[in-house]
């Protein structure tokens, strides 16, 4: 089964398969198999490289449980816990600004981040709905006006 999440992020970033292959160093044939869902277990290094190039987390693109070893982002369920993670420079600066702001500044930073997150999730979900409709019509027979299955990307842990 095609990785529609990966295809959607590529479309959102305006990156073709060839460009993604060149940017990640992953052979085009391997990348094609990953996109088409022909690879049963994608190498962790490939997932991380693809996610980095697309400026997102592997959990957003691949079906990797949040409690796996691949966890490189701080998740909401870690709030209040002691967490040791290597932050990117922008993440570090954002944390610094947040920690050194007054209460009103912290609220403004948090509200802006929440609004951006929700807008991004809405955009991704709408693009996935369009992709689902397009795929249904390409596969033949499915009614393109029928509601597409909703795929959500929230920061909730996967359950088995």
Summarize this, please?
With 160 residues, this protein is mainly α.
Topology, element by element:
Layout: H1 4-13, H2 17-24, H3 28-35, H4 44-53, H5 58-61, H6 89-99, H7 103-139
Structure description:
This protein has helices at about 5-15, 15-25, 30-35, 45-55, 60, 90-100, 105-140. It is an all-alpha fold and about 160 residues long. The chain has one domain (about 5-140): lambda repressor-like DNA-binding domains (434 Repressor (Amino-terminal Domain)). Helix 1 packs across helix 7. The protein is elongated and about 50 Å long. The model is unreliable at about 140-160 (pLDDT under 50).
CATH architecture: Orthogonal Bundle
Number of helices: 7
CATH classification, class level? Mainly Alpha
Number of strands: 0
The helicity comes to: 55-70%
Largest sheet: none
Total domain count: 1
How large is the radius of gyration? 18 Å
How would you describe this structure in keywords?
mainly alpha; 55% helix; 434 Repressor (Amino-terminal Domain); single chain
């Amino acid at each position: 089964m095609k990785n529609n999440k990966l295809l959607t992020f590529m479309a959102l970033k305006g990156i073709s398969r060839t460009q993604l292959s060149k940017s990640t160093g992953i052979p085009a044939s391997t990348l094609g198999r990953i996109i088409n869902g022909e690879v049963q277990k994608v190498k962790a290094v490939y997932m991380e490289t693809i996610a980095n190039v697309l400026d997102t987390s592997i959990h957003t693109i691949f079906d990797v449980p949040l409690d796996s070893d691949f966890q490189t982002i701080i998740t909401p369920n870690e709030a209040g816990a002691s967490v040791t993670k290597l932050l990117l420079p922008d993440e570090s600066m954002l944390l610094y600004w947040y920690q050194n702001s007054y209460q009103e500044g912290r609220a403004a930073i948090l509200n802006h981040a929440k609004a951006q997150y929700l807008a991004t999730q809405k955009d991704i979900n709408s693009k996935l709905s369009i992709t689902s409709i397009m795929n249904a019509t390409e596969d033949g027979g499915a009614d393109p006006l029928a509601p597409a299955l909703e795929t959500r990307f929230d920061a909730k842990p996967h359950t088995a």
